[in-house]
């Protein structure tokens, strides 16, 4: 009989957020697959858990998946964790879980702390701007790709949740203001559940101004509200843009050249 794979969420900062169930299972399994053994060892030592750790990150996941599946097939129970929060959410693990499911191995989720949910809970947006919501993950590092990503989601009628690093935050906020305009509601959660947790709430423009004046530090989770009324929308695929000014306005709002804007309209036809 095969073992079970427990996919366990770990604290995103405050160690008190680990559940009793997670602590029990981490101590009971044969081994724990994790991104960084040095980081995860600190968590286990805090709770006096002595389960062996196995590194599992993007560069070794193909070979390590084969190894872990073999152990599961032999009847061992294993755990999969990440450095912080839930595995698979912008972190490695999808390959192992998918192949375990394909091999008819039982996969058990053990929920816990989540930066996405924590940010949504404290964003301060009205309920109708939070339900539903869309999780995007990390924005692309390259400016052009980042602006195209923001453009893709610009008119989505839901709240949008992004992760961002401190050294890219200012550039990301500048691109949001260029692509979305200054008035979209935005909440920036910094160092969630940690000692220096902070929320900066307002509009894209006001949040950007805050972090132009204050050095961004720590990891960020951003929650953008619904597109403001009257936001520029793409020309429809059924009719040409009414004028060059319409193409120009759309291009400016979405961070692209006029020729690119017109080409994209043609592709929609």
Task: Give a structural overview.
The protein is an alpha/beta fold and 269 residues long. It folds into three domains: 4-110, Tetrapyrrole methylase, N-terminal domain (Cobalt-precorrin-4 Transmethylase, domain 1), CATH 3.40.1010; 128-224, Tetrapyrrole methylase, C-terminal domain (Methyltransferase, Cobalt-precorrin-4 Transmethylase, Domain 2, 2-Layer Sandwich), CATH 3.30.950; 232-269, no CATH class. It has ten helices and ten strands. It has helices spanning 20-28, 37-46, 61-73, 94-102, 115-122, 143-152, 166-180, 204-213, 244-253, 258-268; strands spanning 4-8, 31-34, 53-55, 78-80, 106-110, 133-138, 159-164, 185-190, 198-203, 220-224. Strand 6, helix 6 (143-152) and strand 7 form a beta-alpha-beta unit. Helix 9 packs across helix 10 (258-268). It is elongated, with a radius of gyration of 22 Å.
Strand content: 15-25%
What's the arrangement of strands in the largest beta sheet?
3-2-4-1-5
Tell me the major beta sheet: 5 strands, parallel
SSE order in H/E notation?
Answer: EHEHEHEHEHEHEHEEHEHH
Give the rounded overall mean pLDDT: 88
Which CATH class of the largest domain is shown?
A: Alpha Beta
Strand runs, count: 10
Q: Helix count, per DSSP?
A: 10
CATH superfamily of the largest domain: Tetrapyrrole methylase, N-terminal domain
Low-confidence stretches: 232-242
Q: Remind me, CATH topology of the largest domain?
A: Cobalt-precorrin-4 Transmethylase, domain 1
Give the % helix.
Answer: 25-40%
- Provide the structure class: alpha/beta
Per the principal axes of the C-alpha atoms, what is the gross shape? elongated
Q: End-to-end distance, in Å?
A: 56 Å
In the CATH hierarchy, the architecture of the largest domain is 3-Layer(aba) Sandwich
């Amino acid at each position: 009989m095969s073992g079970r794979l427990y996919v366990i969420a770990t604290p995103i900062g405050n160690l008190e957020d680990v559940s009793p169930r997670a602590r029990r299972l981490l101590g009971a399994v044969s081994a724990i697959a994790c991104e960084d053994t040095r980081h995860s060892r600190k968590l286990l030592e805090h709770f006096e858990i002595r389960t062996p750790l196995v590194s599992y990150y993007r560069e070794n996941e193909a070979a390590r998946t084969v190894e872990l599946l073999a152990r599961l097939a032999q009847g061992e129970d294993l755990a999969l964790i990440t450095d912080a929060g839930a595995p698979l959410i912008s972190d490695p693990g999808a390959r192992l879980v998918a192949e375990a499911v394909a091999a008819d191995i039982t996969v058990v989720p053990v929920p816990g702390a989540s930066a996405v949910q924590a940010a949504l809970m404290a964003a301060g947006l009205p309920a109708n701007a939070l339900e539903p919501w869309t999780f995007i993950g990390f924005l692309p590092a390259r400016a052009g790709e980042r602006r195209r990503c923001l453009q893709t989601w610009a008119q989505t009628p839901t709240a949008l949740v992004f992760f961002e690093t401190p050294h890219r935050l200012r550039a990301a906020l500048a691109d949001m203001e260029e692509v979305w305009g200054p008035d979209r509601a935005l909440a920036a959660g910094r160092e969630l559940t940690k000692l220096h947790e902070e929320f900066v709430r307002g509009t894209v423009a006001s949040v950007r101004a805050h972090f132009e004046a204050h050095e961004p530090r720590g990891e960020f989770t951003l929650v953008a509200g619904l597109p403001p009324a009257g936001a520029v929308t793409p020309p429809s695929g059924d009719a040409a843009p009414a004028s060059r000014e319409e193409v120009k306005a759309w291009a400016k709002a979405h961070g692209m050249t006029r020729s690119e804007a017109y080409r994209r309209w043609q592709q929609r036809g």
